[in-house]
Write a structure and sequence with these properties.
- The chain is α/β, with parallel strands linked by helices.
- It has a single domain (9-129), classed as Rossmann fold (3-Layer(aba) Sandwich), CATH 3.40.50.
- The protein has five helices and five strands.
- It has helices at 17-29, 40-49, 66-76, 91-99, 112-129; strands at 9-13, 33-37, 54-58, 81-86, 104-107.
- Strands 2-1-3-4-5 form a five-stranded parallel beta sheet, sandwiched between helices.
- Strand 3 (54-58), helix 3 and strand 4 form a beta-alpha-beta unit.
- Helix 2 (40-49) packs parallel to helix 3.
- The chain is globular and about 35 Å long.
- The chain starts with 8 loop residues before the first strand and ends with a helix.
Amino acid sequence: MNTPPTATRILIVDDEPDLLDMLLAYFLASKFDVETATDGVDALIAISQRRPDVVLLDVNMPRMNGVEALKAIVKIDSSIAVIMVTGNAELPVTVEAIQNGAFGYVPKPFDLRYLDHLIAASLRRSHSRR
C-alpha cells in the first residue's frame, strides 16, 4: 500500500505576533503543514516533538536569539533547512548565521515570492542529502 505524500512542515519562529499570523495564513493557504513558536526555546521544543522540513527563524527574540537557536537546531538535525528572517540586515550577523548552517537569510520586509523560492530551493537541497 502506498502512503500518501505528507505536506511540507514549516516551523515559523518570530516574536512579532502580526508577522507570525501573516506567515501562518500565507503558508497554510499554500497547503503547508505549519507550526509557530515565539522564541528559540519554544522552537527547540517544537522541533523535538515534530521535526519540520524548514524553519523560518527570526534573529532577535527573547530568551534565545535566532543564532543560538540555529546552532542548537543544527546539532539536533543538520538536514533541517533553516532560513533566517530578520529586520537586522547587518553583515556580521548574516555571516555568522551562514557559517553556523543557515540555508539562507531574508531581511524584513521581504517579498513572499522570494521566500517561496528560497523554501523550494532549501527543500531540494535537503531532499538531495537524504
